[in-house]
Design goal:
- The complex is a heterodimer of chains A (286) and B (315).
- Chain A is mainly alpha-helical and 286 residues long.
- Chain A is 72% helix and 0% strand.
- In chain A, helix 3 packs parallel to helix 12 and helix 6 runs antiparallel to helix 7.
- The longest helix of chain A has 29 residues.
- Chain A starts with a helix and ends with a helix.
- The N terminus of chain A is likely disordered.
- Chain B has a domain of 186 residues: MetI-like (MetI-like fold).
- Chain B contains 14 helices and no strands.
- The longest helix of chain B is centred in the N-terminal third of the chain and has 36 residues.
- The mean pLDDT of chain B is 82.
- The chains are: A mainly alpha (286), B mainly alpha (315).
């Protein structure tokens, strides 16, 4: 059965792939994300200064002075190294939270769309309620009372994203569930789990990928915001959100590089992710 | 329509209930007792018990929830741990400050967003469309503080036109100077959403039969655009705008922290950092309620615009 369905599911995805590879925004976005992924995995390859090394005598060194390409911050730490190492936390937490949200959301959405009736009614009401709440506020409330470690952040963001993903998946399942191939599988006596995960799931891959990339952008956005107001990263961490908060007062002394550089780094990451999302959405919607 | 509104109101009550339970449950899983958290690790157990009793945090979770919600609906959220005064007093003044910021933001972003979206739609697939769409998308996803810090650098530090932050009191001019940078920061994020919706709505309206009829009747281009296209394109945009209020409210959190502006956002950020639980619960509950009301209004407008919902029984 599987070997028969695969070629059918593959042809449109191959077509999508060749269209995507021609898209400039898709390639540019991937370049940006790949760069920050490399920084997160192997920052030592790109910079050789320790991001935590303090040198108060060299406080606020201007860019391109004394071998500090992007200058130093209020503690004399290298701004370039910190910008590169700053990708680590967010490039781990945001994808992990997004994957969690997508897995939970896809399961909920499949159940709501395929099983319908009572399951759908109850879950839909709860989801509509959760969606109307600002994600960052609920996340903040949870992080205040729970231990604000990595696992908690991933769990909280993933949990808050799941309803949004479930809603999209539900709509996609509703469009598929009365098609012939689903009926055929049902009539040949396959159980609900098999129909949901083996028959329907591969055919709604497009919207799920779109949702994944869009949510990844929001996960970075949310995580950066939380870290900016002091949650989710340790004091002194080179994380961009926290660094911008810590260094923003230096601006008033006309020292822009310790805060503007991480802001540019963060913006380049979210914009790259959304270029990818936009390109994929354009191809999937066609 | 009436049936839809009633159903939607019912859902709003359910949402409000879920919100109150989420806020309450999340705040109640605080490890250790509240009294211990306030008095510190060296306080006597009797004092801890005493303060727990005063705050009403003993008893079953159910009775605690009932006590909290029955006071909350009457506007009594208890006393702030940090300020030792009624939460409601602080909440009210912060709410007013945030309202000023939000109103200025909407005054800036709504016309610009609609204009941008309309221009993009009229020049679909041309360079100006690409620029507006990509800029809008990029600004929409960039965290507010990353935009805010660039604005502070240019307009507060380099040009010295406005202060880098602070509270809005004093004359209208002074207040405007304090409010303008945070308002522009929030506008930057919202611009992309509004422009995108207006663009989509305008493109749809341009292709619609009524537009072709209007053109064939020989109406002038500006009249066709103004009366037939924009009016039809704008109503859904307004509905979307209301549903974006929850993003605007979330954005207040970082924007107000960035500009040290004493509204609800900064109040929440500080309460979270100080673990001032009654303040935090109340503020999240109020903001969540507000977001819910906005979503409700958005849904009712959308329904009213869509005859299939207006006259149908099922959504």
């Amino acid at each position: 059965m599987t070997s028969e369905t695969q070629p059918i599911a593959k042809t449109p995805s191959q077509e999508m792939r060749s269209q995507l590879l021609k898209s400039k925004t898709f390639l540019l976005g991937n370049l940006g994300v790949a760069f920050w992924a490399l920084c997160a995995i192997a920052p030592g390859l790109i910079v050789n200064r320790d991001p935590a090394e303090q040198n108060l005598i060299k406080k606020w060194t201007h860019p391109f002075t004394d071998g500090f390409v992007l200058g130093t911050d209020r503690s004399g730490r290298d701004v370039l190294s910190r910008a590169i190492y700053g990708a680590r936390e967010i490039m781990f937490i945001a994808p992990a939270a997004t994957i969690l949200g997508v897995v939970v959301g896809v399961m909920l959405g499949l159940m709501m769309g395929y099983l319908g009736r009572v399951v759908d009614d109850i879950l839909s009401r709860i989801i509509e309620a959760l969606i109307s709440l600002p994600v960052i506020l609920v996340a903040l409330l949870a992080l205040t009372v729970l231990d604000a470690g990595r696992a908690t952040i991933i769990g909280v963001i993933g949990f808050l994203f799941a309803p949004l993903i479930a809603r999209t998946v539900r709509a996609a399942v509703l469009a598929e569930r009365n098609l012939d191939y689903v009926r055929c599988a049902e009539l040949s006596g396959e159980n609900s789990l098999y129909v949901m995960f083996v028959e329907i799931l591969p055919n709604i891959f497009g919207p799920i990928i779109v949702e994944f990339t869009v949510r990844l952008g929001y996960a970075v956005f949310t995580m950066a915001g939380l870290s900016f107001i002091g949650f989710g990263t340790q004091p002194g961490s080179p994380d961009w959100g926290r660094t911008i908060f810590d260094e923003r007062t230096s601006l008033l002394s006309n020292v822009w590089w310790p805060s503007i550089i991480p802001a540019i780094a963060l913006a380049s990451l979210v914009v790259s992710i959304n270029l990818i999302a936009d390109a994929i959405q354009g191809v999937v919607d066609k | 329509m009436a049936r839809y509104v009633i159903r939607r109101l019912g859902l709003a009550v359910v949402t409000l209930f879920i919100l109150s339970v989420v806020v309450f449950v999340v705040a109640s899983v605080l490890p250790g007792s509240v009294g211990r958290a306030i008095l510190g690790p060296f306080a006597l157990q009797e004092s801890v018990d005493q303060i727990n009793k005063e705050l009403g945090v003993n008893g079953s979770l159910y009775s605690q929830y009932f006590r909290w919600i029955s006071h909350a609906v009457r506007g009594d959220f208890g006393d702030s741990y940090k300020f030792q005064g009624p939460v409601t007093d602080y909440l009210a003044s912060a709410f007013w400050s945030s309202t000023k910021l939000a109103v200025l933001t909407l005054i800036i972003v709504v016309p610009i967003g609609i204009l941008g979206g309309a221009i993009a739609a009229l020049r679909k697939d041309q360079a100006s469309d690409r620029i507006i769409t990509v800029t809008g998308l990029s600004l929409a996803v960039t965290p507010e503080f990353a935009i805010g810090i660039v604005l502070i650098l240019f307009f507060a530090v380099k040009l010295r036109w406005v202060p880098a932050g602070g509270s809005a009191d004093g004359s209208i001019i002074e207040q405007f100077k304090v409010l303008i940078l945070p308002a522009v920061t929030l506008s930057a994020t919202l611009f992309g959403y509004i422009a995108r919706m207006t663009r989509a709505g305008t493109i749809e309206a341009l292709a619609a039969d009524y537009t072709r009829t209007a053109e064939l009747k020989g109406l002038s281009r500006s009249r066709v655009l103004g009366v037939h296209v924009l009016r039809n394109a704008l109503l859904p945009t307004i509905a979307v705008l209301a549903s974006q209020m929850s993003y605007l409210l979330g954005g207040l959190l970082v924007t107000e922290t960035m500009f040290n502006y004493k509204g609800l956002g900064l109040l929440i950020a500080n309460a979270a950092n100080d673990r001032d639980i009654p303040m935090l619960m109340a503020a999240v509950f109020v903001v969540g309620t507000f977001a819910m009301i906005m979503t409700l209004i958005a849904d009712v407008i959308t329904a009213w615009l869509n005859p299939r919902i207006r006259f149908g029984s099922h959504v």
